[in-house]
Amino acid sequence: MSKIFFDSAISLDGFFAGENRSSDNPMGGVSGKLHQWMFKQKAFWKHIKVEGGGEENDADGKLIDETFARTGSYIMGKRMFEEGEVSWAEDLYEADVYVLTHEKRDPWVQKGSTTFYFINDGIESALEKATQSAQGKDIRIQGGANTIQQFLNAGLVDEFFIHISPVFLGSGIRLFDNIDKDKYDIKIDQIFESELTTHIKYKLMKK
């Protein structure tokens, strides 16, 4: 049975992204601070179809490979899509991607196996379609923070990985603002550290 999960980096003070986000300034310019652990790994560059660079850390690289391998479809918000649309490689996701938006738009079919669908009728509709596309694999709520919060508050998330980077951002968009604190019982399932982050996996059980 498919699981619904997200996998996100945050700063020590809880920020998921910076301010003044745009297609020219994805994630508010803080990607290098939050995702440095990932950018150092060959596994990451392989999955985004960029040759060369990176290290081969067994634990970090394995986690990156496993996250891509388990995912059968993606759900994201319009802002994240707009920030990435101009720069993402063709067929980056290698799966169906459901974009939550008020904009009516025909599917964007890419070469390979990536198609972006634009969903106008809410998260439940996106999840139903993403579950069908996933064919038994898991559904990743890709972001941004508001989209993740909507799925958390609806009681629809089964588990998540947080990668805590040893930096303070001071301002920006927090991942866990506006969360219904009484929605789940939460258990730590796994913890391991690497040079540039601490990985924590949580399992959620809806009350």
Characterization of this structure:
It comes from Maribellus comscasis. This is Dihydrofolate reductase. InterPro entries: DHFR-like_dom_sf (IPR024072), RibDG_C (IPR002734), Riboflavin_Biosynth_HTPR (IPR050765). One of its GO terms (molecular function) is 5-amino-6-(5-phosphoribosylamino)uracil reductase activity. A hairpin with a 4-residue loop joins strand 10 and strand 11. The chain has one domain: Dihydrofolate Reductase, subunit A, CATH 3.40.430. The strands form two sheets. A nine-stranded mixed β-sheet has the order 5-6-4-3-7-1-8-11-10. The protein has a two-stranded antiparallel ribbon with strand order 2-9. The protein is α/β, with parallel strands linked by helices and 207 residues long. The mean pLDDT is 94.
Query: Helix share of residues?
Result: 25-40%
**In this structure, how is the largest beta sheet organized?**
9 strands, mixed
Tally of DSSP helical segments:
7
Q: Strand-and-helix sequence, N→C?
A: EEHHHHEHEEEHEHEEEE
Q: Give the mean pLDDT.
A: 94
Q: Can you tell me the CATH class?
A: Alpha Beta
Radius of gyration: 16 Å
Which key phrases capture this entry?
Riboflavin_Biosynth_HTPR, 7 helices, two-stranded antiparallel ribbon, about 210 residues, Dihydrofolate Reductase, subunit A, 5-amino-6-(5-phosphoribosylamino)uracil reductase activity, nine-stranded mixed sheet, Dihydrofolate reductase, RibDG_C, alpha/beta
